[in-house]
Amino acid sequence: MATLWATASAPPRGSVSGAPGAPTQAPPSPGNGVGAPVRETLVGGASPLARTGEPPVIRIRGVTKTYALGATTVHALRGVDLDVHRGEFVAIMGPSGSGKSTLMNVIGCLDLPTSGTYELDGRETSRLKDDELAEIRNQKIGFIFQMFNLLPRTSALEQVELPLVYAGRKDRRALATAALASVGLEDRMHHKPSELSGGQQQRVAVARALVTEPAILLADEPTGNLDSRSSEEIMALLQKLNRDRGITIVFVTHEPDITQHMQRAIHIRDGRVVRDERVEHPLNAEEILARLPAEDDEEVKS
Ligand code: ADP
Ligand code: MG
What we know:
By secondary structure, this protein is of the alpha/beta class. The chain has a domain of 181 residues: Rossmann fold (3-Layer(aba) Sandwich). 27% of the residues lie in helices and 23% in strands. The chain contains eight helices and eleven strands. The strands form two sheets. The protein has a seven-stranded mixed beta sheet, sandwiched between helices. A four-stranded antiparallel beta sheet has the order 3-2-5-6, covered by helices on one side. Strand 5 and strand 6 form a beta hairpin. It is globular, with a radius of gyration of 19 Å. It binds adenosine-5'-diphosphate and magnesium ion (MG). The site of magnesium ion (MG) has 2 residues, from helix 1.
């Protein structure tokens, strides 16, 4: 069994307009005027949004990660405490090299911490074996990546069915169809990635991540290769999934405008959480989209 199906193939490159590559139009400034955030800063693990007595879906305590690099030791994580509750939509922010990917790898059960504990959805994971970690990934985690990581010659429907194959599900066609409909791609189900815009490809990836109904959705810079409008569309989709279906989302980004779409911003630096703050009035992606000029829309609807 594949341990991480989503990285099984190289992402398609340069295949469609609006896909990977620098955006050419001037970016809008969604940070202006809307929902100026009122913030409170907390550090030390507890979620600033924790309201109920329900245990957190992510509970990290004292997590360190060191890498041996020749004679030196790299301290990628230096003692992270973090809770994320069900239904939160949180940003993990930090400069390059601060430990974001290392932390995401631990949260995503792609890697084990050197020390400390990590409970995912009530299950302690920090001492599991590779095959047990793979099983947890398949059951509990949906991944969305910057480069979409779709299979190049495979229809949207088949991409979304794939995790259900690994999960041994029989009702694959119906579930995949429903997942694609939930991301607005019911009329693109038989298209291959090269026949879809970048934003549409990322929506296929969102459907693929959701179809197994994971406990958490992990997104690593999922708007990093999208133009401004497509980025905003992905944010609108994730906000809707979070709002309507209560899906828990952890989202790595270094873009401040993107961070303002989430309810909580966790800042990491040098392997530590240095700030954990609530965004009082997150930006509403639907409203921003409504204000964007129409000529930014590269999608051609059939
Ligand atoms: P970010 O995602 O915030 O850019 P990373 O988590 O990738 O940061 O890296 C944190 C630190 O750990 C960096 O100093 C990086 O060079 C180091 N690091 C990451 N992965 C490895 C590895 N496999 N081997 C050695 N050092 C690593
Ligand atoms: Mg990284």
